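Chapter review: from sequence to fold.
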Amino acid sequence: MNLLIQLASFAALAVVLMRTVHQIAHLDHRTWVRQRIKFAAFSFSIALICGGALGAALNLSYSHILLLFGVAGWFFFDRRGDRLK
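The token string follows.
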């Protein structure tokens, strides 16, 4: 059972990493005019998500905190949410 959970966590890690790499590939700092700090914070939150996902798959402590801060940063600093208002 433990092996099954470990394999599932590595599969989830692969999905998270592929999704974040896809997001990073579409980022262009030139489109973030007058929002350089927000761009840096959004990029840092993507890095936190990748680190937290890797740490969770390897069963490291504090990885859940990295994931939590990464997802909160993604929601807070993503510009696409500005268009919904």
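Two observations follow directly from the output. The chain has one domain: 2-27+35-78. Residues 2-27+35-78 form one domain.
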